[in-house]
Design a protein that fits this description.
Blueprint lengths: L2 H22 L4 H28 L6 H5 L6 H24 L6 H19 L4 H19 L6 H32 L4 H11 L3 H17 L7 H5 L5 H11 L2 H8 L1 H4 L3 H24 L3 H21 L3 H20 L1 H14 L6 H19 L9 H11 L14 H25 L15 H20 L5 H8 L4 H12 L13
Helix pairs in contact: 1-2, 1-5, 2-4, 2-5, 4-5, 4-11, 4-16, 5-6, 6-7, 6-11, 7-8, 7-9, 9-12, 9-14, 11-16, 12-16, 14-15, 14-21, 15-16, 18-19, 18-20, 19-21
InterPro entries: ND/Mrp_TM (IPR001750), NU5C-like (IPR003945), Proton_antipo_N (IPR001516), Transporter_DabB (IPR046396)
GO biological process, one term: electron transport coupled proton transport
Subunit structure: Forms a complex with DabA.
Length: 511
Amino acid sequence: MDAVSLFVCAPIAVMLLTAIAVSLMRGADAQRWKLCNEASGLALLLTLFSGLLVLTQPSQSFQVLSAAGLYVSPLQAVIAVLVQGVGLVVARFSSRYLEGEPHQRQYIVALSMVLACVHLLLIADHWLILILSWSGVGVFLKRMLCFYAERPFAQLASHKKTVADILADDVLLLAALLSWVSVGSGSMSALLANVSAHGHTQLTEICAVLLVIAVVLRTALLPVHGWLIQVMEAPTPVSALLHAGVVNLSGYLLIRFSALFADSTIANTLLLAIGLITCVFAALVMFTRISIKVRLAWSTVAQMGFMIVECALGLYTFAALHLIGHSIYKAYAFLSAAEIVADTRVAQIAGRQAFAALSFYLAPLLSLTIVLAIQALFATPPWPLWWSLVLAFAWAPVLWWRSSTSDLSPSLRWQGLLSGSLLTGLLTLVSAGFHHIPLGTIDQPRSEYAVAVVIAMGALYLFSVLIHTVPQRLNRLHRWIYAGLYLDAFYTRCVLRLWPVSWGKSTHANR
């Protein structure tokens, strides 16, 4: 194995050795955390260095990696740095957050193994490595989710996630078998090259659909989304790691398999339908919730649905940007949840400030104008025109301004509108500029889905306006939306009927 291969695999070895060392160490937990934090920092540095090597080496230098069932790319390097960075922050935060708690040894081991498995998943180019690493993420993440083993909802969420993970693993095994039969190899690159050169066969079409099903099960999309909401019973740093570096791995795999989905109408339609329904549904539920962490969890479900929609539309560069931005934001949001609670209390004391009715109508037009103006700066439009409408609806609430009856002075209201306009322009500029970074993503916009997506986003925007203007007329819907249409209750009953389980006073020793 050459130097590049060693550096690419080095972070995995570091975290594996850390898990072994921590499990064997005697003494205070502080020493274990010191080792974990130092190892996480070393893994991040190695990941950064290997990423630079990946960006500077010609593609033929990676033949050794390919022969070993591994794969590297600019996007993989960026995501790997992101995950290891989140891992380092979570490790340092956890060492303070869990101070004095029992079973910290098991937590550190599980955290190290999750980071090792995620890194292995990112560089996997063989179906068996992909399945084993993704399964390993689920196994060790379960130990972290059940850190407070006496909490029944934590155990219920973990059990529901385990069932979804097992189903996803079975589906992936079947997809791997079909791929192997189709191309005579377990190499994912061989499958993608074969599909790109010769088009789909019946087996590869089924493989694409099975991969979609596995993604739905692993990404907490409808109807198996409930466990992601209930893991709020886990420690806050676990939520940060889950939402920022684990649950969105499916987005990376969809981008990785983009060649497989290029001409698969069935797979793309299924992705779009589930992603769009999940996005709109979860966003509506989020509007009804009060708890900060629960709102963040529903926000993640909605964001994952939207990222799946981007992949179904062939906008893989946007999906990559979404994945990176979501990871950074959610890591910050969960780890600073206490500050958000304080800010919310200040806002509640100040009272609810009404928005001007005119802003609800003009904001989408102003947002669209800003998006189109920045899009016109580029010789080649970075995305199709209809996607600009989607962005306009998504960013329009940033441009709402306060009504004249609010406590704010006219100058402050205008400053708010100016700030919103600058933010919209900055978001658009970053999105357009990101398309010029050579990450290896190839967009294939599918305009046949444009009308459905624009209508869905328009409907979601309209509902958010109604919440602010005529909330009393939505009282009948409020109970149903708040309960998530009882979809999770139905899924929970199905899981417990298929795999009954009872919880007593569990201990970490018997897990």
